[in-house]
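Troubleshooting entry. The earlier prediction with alpha-D-galactopyranose gave an output that would not parse, so I re-checked the input for stray whitespace and re-submitted. Clean input:
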Amino acid sequence: MRVSESVIRRAFEQRFQTPPAFVVRAPGRVNLIGEHTDYNDGFVLPLAIDRAVWIALRPRADRQVLAHSLDFAGSTTFALDELTRSDDGWAEYVKGVAWVLQEAGHRLHGWEGVIAGDVPVGAGLSSSAALEMAVARAFAAVSDLPWDAAKMALLGQRAENEWVGVRCGIMDQMISAAGRAGHALLIDCRSLHTETVPFPPGTTVVVLDTATRRGLVDSAYNERRSQCESAARAFGVSALRDVSSACFEAECGRLDEITRRRARHVVTENERTLQAADAMRRGDAVAVGRLMNASHESLRDDFAVSSQELNVMVECGRRHPACLGIRMTGAGFGGCAVALVHSEQAKSFTSAVAASYQAKTEIAPVLYVCAATDGAAVVRIGELPQ
Ligand code: GLA
């Protein structure tokens, strides 16, 4: 189901018999290029998409939080003074964000509300980061906290790392917090400096969900991170961001074969990402597409995080004349590919590629034409209760 401001507001009204005081929205994301570079202090170029997590809420006088999830048909209630970690699925993200905001010294108010989203879960479109940033926005609204996108993204990442126990980089929270409508965001994952980048005229972003999900993604992700860290140590730098391709070529002999391949992906991907941002600013869609294609090859062959279905999707996409470039996106091993296509043929692209993928794999994919939206925001402020 697609969620909108009116859907979430009606759900709140049904449950609480009164309009919400706030409606907040935080988007999912798709990454155009710059994969597995964020935890190497490198560059990423994602966009916030028109699929998001929404919360309609009102403050409570006490320090209780009561949240009902429409997607998971369940509720969570907890006291801000007695946060305990458990294995409670989506509710852990709500508690984790409360915990991290209090750890950062913020004085929080309780609230009650309903949560719903239309970012597909587990597809690699960052439904967790969207939930974290929506919850952070909700607490910021009821507790009157200033919204600093980078600070909130770092806190969301810490909640995911330390409360939920997933080791992710900063990209997903940062783009969900700071995205800009109609633009991609070039993020320097070391300084968290961001720069809006326009899309080349006449192009559209398409997300292609292979409808496959891989269970081993967490352990493979952690293994890649360790390989990157040991490569950085071998080069004597704090992160692979500091290795240029010239330096890599000159000194990669000291790495074993696997570590060399992993490092080569990161070093070349950082360069591709900066080149892609330049090409977008020049409106050179063909160059952006070429860089996306090269990114896929590097993720498939050097970083080894693609999957058979992702490779089939990429091949099917590349055969269509509308396609400027296509690659796997996100952590990998399943989930989605992303393509940049000629806008006027976007519809024919999605139907033709869906059909050829399904014919080859016998799996029904889901393809969306995407619009770039703003990052986490309060989209409606109602009457506050007296
Ligand atoms: C996941 C992580 C991100 C990033 C990507 C790979 O989405 O959450 O931090 O590392 O994988 O680019």
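This one parsed fine. The CA atoms of residues 87 and 148 lie 30 Å apart.
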